Amino acid sequence: xxxxxxxxxxxxxxxxxxxxxxxxxxxxxxxxxxxxxxxxxxxxxxxxxxxxxxxxxxxxxxxxxxxxxxxxxxxxxxxxxxxxxxxxxxxxxxxxxxxxxxxxxxxxxxxxxxxxxxxxxxxxxxxxxxxxxxxxxxxxxxxxxxxxxxxxxxxxxxxxxxxxxxxxxxxxxxxxxxxxxxxxxxxxxxxxxxxxxxxxxxxxxxxxxxxxxxxxxxxxxxxxxxxxxxxxxxxxxxxxxxxxxxxxxxxxxxxxxxxxxxxxxxxxxxxxxxxxxxxxxxxxxxxxxxxxxxxxxxxxxxxxxxxxxxxxxxxxxxxxxxxxxxxxxxxxxxxxxxxxxxxxxxxxxxxxxxxxxxxxxxxxxxxxxxxxxxxxxxxxxxxxxxxxxxxxxxxxxxxxxxxxxxxxxxxxxxxxxxxxxxxxxxxxxxxxxxxxxxxxxxxxxxxxxxxxxxxxxxxxxxxxxxxxxxxxxxxxxxxxxxxxxxxxxxxxxxxxxxxxxxxxxxxxxxxxxxxxxxxxxxxxxxxxxxxxxxxxxxxxxxxxxxxxxxxxxxxxxxxxxxxxxxxxxxxxxxxxxxxxxxxxxxxxxxxxxxxxxxxxxxxxxxxxxxxxxxxxxxxxxxxxxxxxxxxxxxxxxxxxxxxxxxxxxxxxxxxxxxxxxxxxxxxxxxxxxxxxxxxxxxxxxxxxxxxxxxxxxxxxxxxxxxxxxxxxxxxxxxxxxxxxxxx
Length: 727
Ligand SMILES: Nc1nc2c(c(=O)[nH]1)N[C@H]1C(S)=C(S)[C@@H](COP(=O)(O)OP(=O)(O)OC[C@H]3O[C@@H](n4cnc5c(=O)[nH]c(N)nc54)[C@H](O)[C@@H]3O)O[C@H]1N2
Ligand SMILES: Nc1nc2c(c(=O)[nH]1)N[C@H]1C(S)=C(S)[C@@H](COP(=O)(O)OP(=O)(O)OC[C@H]3O[C@@H](n4cnc5c(=O)[nH]c(N)nc54)[C@H](O)[C@@H]3O)O[C@H]1N2
Ligand code: SF4
Ligand SMILES: [Mo]
Known about the structure:
The strands form 6 sheets. The chain has a 7-stranded mixed β-sheet, sandwiched between helices. Strands 21-25-22-24-23-26 form a 6-stranded mixed β-barrel. It has a 5-stranded parallel β-sheet with strand order 10-9-8-12-13. It contains 25 helices and 26 strands. By secondary structure, it is an alpha/beta fold. Helix 2 links the parallel strand 6 and strand 7. Helix 3 (158-168) packs across helix 13 (322-335). It is globular and about 70 Å long. Helix content is 32%, strand content 16%. Residues 29, 156, 189-192, 195-197, 218-221, 223, 235, 237-238, 240, 313-315, 319, 351-352, 603, 605-606, 608, 610-612, 702 line the site of one ligand MGD.
C-alpha cells in the first residue's frame, strides 16, 4: 500500500454533480472576483469556482469565495419572515410584509411629524447592490427627506473619500490592479493585503514573478505582507502622517520632485513646502519610530522609480488623521508625478464588496453620481430628474453614522433604520452603543440574518435576500462595475433590499409620485442617464456588456467598448480650476496613548478566515473551524512579565470596558502592543475608543490604551470566550 506523497492520487475531489454554472460576483470584499456557482440537478447550489477569463481573479478565489455557495443553504439565523414587537425585549412575533411595511411607514411619519424630518435617521452599508443604493438614496433624500442618512462606510472608507476630495476635487480611486505590472516601487501603508484582499495580493505576486520591484510595507505589526516586503517600516501607531511628511521633506530637499508636473497640474506648492520643511528625518524619527537613514532611503527609492504607487487600507483610514493620511499619500504622489500613469498611483484598497457603489450612487453624503447637496445645480438637476421640488433637499449634508448614534443619546434622533450593518459588534464602545439603541422610540433592522446582535434592540425586523439571491452591480477597488447575477431565489419569505425600498416608498405620498423602477436593470438604466458626461460615466455599460467583459471600469461613456483603466491621465483634476491641491498637514498628537495604568497599545483588525461580524463566515465554509475563538496576539516578552502563557486567557481593560481573550504569543507585535481581530461579538469593541477623524468622522479603531492581566479564573474565562464565539 502506498501512503502520503507516494500515493498516486492523494487528493480526491468529490463529484458534486454540477449540471449548470451560473456567473456572478463575489459578495465579500472589494476585490471583485468573478465567481461561478454550480447548481446540481435539483437546482441546489453546491460549488463555487473562479471565472478563468475574468481579468480580476483569473480563475482564483480565496477561502471565503470558494465556499460562498453555502450561504444559500439553510444556514442558522437567516431571516425568513418579518418580525415585530411593540415593546423591546418582548419576544418577536412573526408577521406578514404588509403589516411590517405599513408599520415602518407609519412610525417614520409619526416620528418625523412629532420631532421634525431629521429626527428619523437611516444608516446603510457597503454590502448591497448599487441599484439598491441608488433606490435607497431616492427614498431617503427624495421621499422620506431626512438629512441624517449615512452608511457604515464611515467606519471604513470615509477617510479615503474625504482625502480624494480634498486633493483631487472628487472621490474615485485613480489607479487599478494592472498598475502592479508597470510600477517600479510599491509602498503599502496599513494594509494586510494577503489576508484581507488575497486575490489582489496574488495579482501583486504574479507581477513580482515577472519583474522584480521593491515592496515597502508600513505597519506596526509584522503582518504576512510585512514578512514578504523588501523593507518593513514598523511605524509607531497613528504616526504615518509624520512619516509621509518626512518622505516629502527629503524628496524636496534633494530635488527629486517633478517641478514641471506640479507647475502644470497642482497648486499650493509653496505652503506645502513650508510645512514639510519642519518634518526633517531627525525630528520625524523621534515621533514615527522609523530611523532617519531609512526615511531617506525610502524617499529616494520611491522618488527615483520611473513609476511608483501607494496602496493603503485601514491602517491609514482608521486613524485620527485618516483623511490627512490620505491627503499626505496624494501629496507624495503629486510631487513625484505619480498620478494617472501606468504604475503610478494613489490607490486606496476598498473594503466591502460594494463600498464603492455606495460612495458613487447612494446619496449618503450628497446626491447620486458624485453630486453634492451643497451645489445648487446638482440639487436642481436631481430634483428635476426625480420630479420633486429642489427645496425639499437640504443645502448641506447631515450627520455621519458616527454622529448619528451619539445624537440618539442627546435626543436629536428618535428613530433609526439600519440596513446591512451590525453596530452592536462593529462600533467602538459597545456599552454606549447599547444605551443609544435602547433609547430609540423605533428601530428597524433590515438584515439577511435575524440573529444579528443589533436585532436584539429592534422593534421591527425586515428579512433581506442575500448576495446572489438577487441581481445588481458592485463596483470594486479599481472602479470596475461587476454584475452579480441572480443564482437562486431568496431564502424563505425574505425579499431583495430593492423590493423593500420600493415598497416603503409606496407608503409615502411623495413616494407614490416618483418613479421607482421595479427591477434592478431598470434602475441601472436610470443611473446611466444620470452618469452621462460625469467622472463616473457608466452610460456605455449594460448588464450583458458587463457580464461579457467580466466587469467594466468607469468612466465608460456611451459608445465606448471598453472602460478606463485610470483617472487623471491627462492631469486634469476635478477642482474647478482643473488642478490638484497640495495641502500642508500639521501632525496633532491627539490619540489616547499608553500610560502607567493602561500600558499597552491596542490594535484591531481582521483575519483571513472571517468577514466582519461573522454573520456569514461564522457559519459557512471552514473559516470558523480555522479561527473559532476571540484571541489576542501578544509579544512573549510582555507575557512573561505578566505571567501569561500561550493559550491562556487574559482580561483586557480600557477606560470604556473589558473583554476576555485567548492569548497567542507571537513576535508579530511589539512588546508594548497587542492585536485583536474585531470579528467577535462582545469582544474588542467593548474596549476600543474610536476617536473620530475631524474631516471624515471615521473612528480610529486601531489605537487606544489598555491594561492586561491574566484571567484569575481560567475556566470562567474559557466559558466567556466560548459565549463570544457562539453560533
Ligand atoms: N478576510 C477578510 N477580508 C476582508 C474583510 C474581513 O473582515 N475579512 N473586510 C473587508 C473590509 S470592509 C476592509 S475595510 C478591509 C480592511 O483591510 P485591511 O485594512 O488590510 O485590514 P485590517 O486588519 O483592518 O488593518 C490593516 C493593518 O493596519 C495595521 N495598522 C494598525 N495601526 C496602524 C498604523 O498606525 N499605521 C499603519 N500604517 N498601519 C496600522 C494593522 O496592524 C493591520 O495589519 O478588508 C476587507 N477584506
Ligand atoms: N475594532 C474594529 N472595529 C471595526 C473595524 C476594525 O478594523 N476594528 N472595521 C470597521 C470596518 S472597516 C467596517 S466595514 C465595519 C463593518 O461593520 P458592519 O457593517 O457592522 O459589519 P457586517 O458584519 O459586515 O454587517 C453587515 C450586515 O449586513 C448583513 N447583510 C449581508 N448582505 C446583506 C444584504 O444583501 N442585505 C441586507 N439587508 N443585509 C445583508 C450581514 O448579515 C451583516 O449583519 O466594521 C468596522 N468596525
Ligand atoms: S478576494 Fe475578496 S472578492 Fe475575491 S474571492 Fe476572496 S472575498 Fe471574494
Ligand atoms: Mo471596511
